[in-house]
Specification:
The protein is α+β, with helices and mostly antiparallel strands. 22% of the residues lie in helices and 37% in strands. The protein has helices at 40-51, 63-73, 88-101, 122-137, 179-187, 201-211, 217-222, 232-235, 258-264, 321-324; strands at residues 2-6, 30-31, 37-38, 56-62, 78-82, 110-115, 118-120, 142-147, 157-161, 167-174, 191-200, 243-248, 252-254, 269-270, 273-275, 280-286, 292-294, 298-305, 308-313, 333-336, 339-347, 350-357, 365-367, 372-379, 381-386, 389-394, 398-401, 407-411, 415-422, 432-434. A hairpin with a 2-residue loop joins strand 21 (339-347) and strand 22 (350-357). The protein has a six-stranded antiparallel beta sheet. The protein has a five-stranded mixed beta barrel with strand order 8-11-9-10-12. Strands 14-16-18-19 form a four-stranded mixed beta sheet, covered by helices on one side. The protein is globular and about 70 Å long. Helix 3 crosses helix 6 (201-211).
């Protein structure tokens, strides 16, 4: 099975755990059997591989998510990089060209496209297999998954099938409606459009060539920033006469808000938190090393991270975005392909960061024009290179770098250090990279 996972957006509705770098799908909030936690993307990837160990998984995403994807899924996952945001049709066309030209997938092979972040169980992946097999038959150019609605939602588009059979031709589509209109659609047998569909590789390649002037994947990639922004639904789905829908009646939740996310959580508290017996339907998600105490609360979510603290009625939490848009502060936590960093302190002429380097990973060999740096190793061991001189380091060692000094560090085990940046102009852009000969 060839699967394309669409991974986009900044997920500001899950602030303060999500931000412009750390999207909602990377928040580790779901407890596994061994007591550790996994994110939406880790859960989805694990479930796919459990259902089909031979599945080819490609994640279509933007540049600022690649580090987090590699951090959570490893270096072997396939990625279709979007140079900039151009909506779902260009993203799916680019991923399809990637599968054909880079991965060498046969144009007659079916491909399944789905979002990376729904909360689903094993039956969803069996349905993806069935969707894939239906597309392989060639009875239709597109086969959609129609989610059986559980309430008249205003958040989703609706698919109205010709009949009530498990697989049916599509009669028409309806845009996101009012609650009353949604109720009427459901009475007509309408299904939620969850953005899940399957097609033969050659079909989307043909549609892409109809709307875009390109020769192959590399050419499309180079022209990507000039492409028109248009959704796959508008460009392809709503114009396709040969289209089918397959019903899915299993669990499917769009975890786009704190309200829906907490419904899927198996625990009421992640991180350090205490609730007294008078609390009802309260969830605490705490990434800080400080205790959170809740008393006498009902239907409330409390979320704390280095980026901020949210205390909200669960229903009201759905309206968080315009308020978060007004917050303009520095990103305080991010996952990278090599590990992660957390900002500990910000002063006018200093920045203090805790850095975790994964075993076998390293920073780039680089220098800064406007700041000095000090590294204090707090755990693990590794090797530094400072102006060409190598040195083994371990917990307790201190390394100083003056302005213009070339430096890097390699983690031989997981390595944690505190980095202190000192200077009047501290900026993420103050970095010049060099090759390490």
């Amino acid at each position: 099975m060839n699967i394309v996972l669409l991974s986009g957006g900044s997920g500001k509705r899950l602030w303060p755990l999500s931000n412009d770098i750390r999207s909602k799908q990377f928040i580790k909030i779901f407890e596994k059997e061994d007591g550790t936690y996994e994110s939406m993307v880790q859960r989805m990837y694990r479930q796919i591989k459990k259902s089909d160990p031979e599945a080819t998984v490609t994640i279509a995403t933007s540049r600022n998510q690649i580090s987090a994807i590699h951090n959570q899924l490893g270096e072997d996952v396939h990625i279709s990089l979007e140079p900039c945001r151009r909506d779902t049709f260009p993203a799916i066309a680019l991923a399809t060209a990637y599968l054909a030209d880079v991965r060498g997938i046969d144009p007659e092979e079916p491909v399944v496209v789905c979002p990376v972040d729904p909360y689903v169980e094993d039956d969803y992946f069996e349905a993806l297999k069935a969707l894939c097999e239906q597309a392989k038959k060639g009875e239709a150019n597109l086969v959609l998954m129609g989610i059986e609605p559980t309430y008249p939602s205003e958040k989703y588009g609706y698919i109205i099938p010709e009949n009530n059979s498990n697989t049916a031709d599509v009669r028409t589509f309806r845009e996101k409606p009012s609650a009353d209109a949604a109720q009427e659609y459901i009475a007509q047998g309408a299904l939620w459009n969850g953005g899940v569909f399957a097609y033969k590789l050659k079909y989307v390649l043909e549609k892409a060539h109809e709307r875009m002037d390109f020769t192959d994947y590399e050419d499309l990639f180079s022209k990507y920033d000039s492409l028109a922004k248009i959704s796959f639904d508008y460009a392809v789905v709503e114009k396709e006469p040969r289209i089918q829908v397959m019903r899915f009646g299993g669990q499917w939740k769009d975890l786009g808000t704190w309200n829906t996310l907490t419904e899927a959580m198996e625990e009421s508290c992640v991180g350090e938190g205490i609730m007294n017996e008078t609390c009802e339907n309260v969830h605490i998600i705490n990434e800080l090393g400080l205790p959170v105490l809740a008393m006498g609360l009902q239907d409330v979510v409390i979320s704390a991270s280095p980026d901020g603290i949210l205390v909200s009625d669960k229903e009201q939490s759905s309206y968080i975005k315009p308020f978060v848009d007004k917050i303009d502060n520095q990103i305080m936590f991010a996952e990278k392909s090599w590990g992660s960093f957390r900002v500990l302190d910000v002063e006018t002429e200093s920045l203090t960061i805790k850095v975790t380097l994964n075993e076998g990973h390293s920073m780039n060999y680089h220098s800064h024009k406007n700041r000095d740096e000090v590294w204090i190793v707090i755990s693990g061991r590794g090797k530094t290179v400072v102006d060409g001189m190598e040195q083994q380091v371990e917990a307790g060692d201190v390394i100083t770098m003056q302005v213009g000094c070339r430096h890097m560090i390699l983690a031989e085990t997981e390595l944690k250090l505190v980095e202190v940046q000192l200077g009047k102009e501290i900026s993420v852009h103050d970095k010049q990279k060099f090759s390490l000969e």
